[in-house]
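We now fix the convention by which a protein and its fold are recorded. The integers have meaning only within a learned vocabulary of local backbone shapes. A complete example follows; check for yourself that the lines match position by position.
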Amino acid sequence: MGDQSNSLNGSQRQRLLITCKHIDQLLRDIEATLNAATSKGVFPSYINDIGPEQREEIEEQVAKLRQKLLEVLDSQSLSPGEPQISAAHSIDVGLTFIEVAIEELAPRYMRGYGPVSEPGTAELHGIMTKLQSVSKGFHRYVRELAEHAQQH
């Protein structure tokens, strides 16, 4: 760590750390927007109006700003700390929410939106089966990853 400045008190240094963390989160949001714009998602949020050269420049600017954040933290003998959340666990939780959303397509829940006919019931069960077959396999895979990561 760099030379600690005595010009900021503990509360000010903590606020600086929190602000740097917030800025880094906003930079992650920028990166997520870049990635979402090129995603093959079914319901895209963004128009991919940034070309490869502009994307590269944006990524370089993000990297520069992150480097400055590290320099600022170092100058105050502050550390960003280590990550605390397992990526595999976060994905596992997301998949749990996906499975709940699929379950809520069941006819007993869809009746809240109006009567469900017999053909509609069969169709909903078919839709659920299609979605569950992929999501449950995906979920099993991620759980195995998480278990393997915990063992190492």
User: Anything to note?
Assistant: Residues 10-75 form one domain. The chain is about 70% helix and 0% strand. The mean pLDDT is 92.
